[in-house]
Amino acid sequence: MFTVLDRISRPGHPDKPNEDICGVSGDWAWVIDTSIFPGTAPVMHDKSDAAWLARFANERLSNLAPQAEDGVTLLRHVMAEARTAYRAVAPKERHEDFVTWPLGAMTLVRRRGDTLDVWTFGDTTAYVRQPDGAVQVLGDAPGLREAEAAMAADLMRQAGSRPTAILDEPVFLAWLAERRERQRKSGVPAALLSFNPDAADRLRHETAPCEEGTTILLASDGFSALVDLYRAMEARALMEAALASGLEPLANLAREIETQADPDGTLYPRFKQSDDTTAILLRA
């Protein structure tokens, strides 16, 4: 079983829906960070199908996880249910048009005796602190962050723009359209939480020791940016700060960096001034 020590989930902008969520159920816990191509008309939610997918997956994981024995099978089942719910409402031409689907990065963990199973889609992160203070970082986020920051820097430089405006710039929209068309021509949906249950076979799976007293922090990229983009602290210091003072001061620090230290994105290139910021801190 996990004990929840703290959790936080803040939207990146007060006028936009929070497309992150986190949850826990018995020996299972997760963080989900969804998105959708800008300009895609919502069909499941008044503002964002990504927000709908996050909440749907969270509800189904809460109900199904206690009886599950394997993360791949569990997520395949949840995605199949999401696909059925989506197809019941969405126009037929969008049933297989995967570039119009909401997608989610996520980390799902399960404690199995003294072992922690970690399944990851995309750029969410699991920080695992052993009772002796050693910290492991699990997931693909650092490498993905580096590539995204480089692209953001290049597009902002071309547009002479900043994170608050880059999503509306012609150079960004042209890059986005080319990326969307390239993905459509590939015919292969992304390996992310989506309406494609087969993507579960492409989950990254890792394990870590998880004896009693181990603490786990699951974070969306808006929270892990403190470590892998802003370099405000290393992973071990992040865990120590979370255990000492909770998650709110850390979320506040991220916002201070984004809005005061680097509002123009020159130090830390990114596509949004502030991203949705979500984390859950657990003890085994």
UniProtKB/TrEMBL annotation:
Residues 17-231 form the PPM-type phosphatase domain. InterPro entries: PPM-type-like_dom_sf, PPM-type_phosphatase-like_dom. This is PPM-type phosphatase domain-containing protein. The lineage of its organism: Bacteria, Pseudomonadati, Pseudomonadota, Alphaproteobacteria, Hyphomicrobiales.
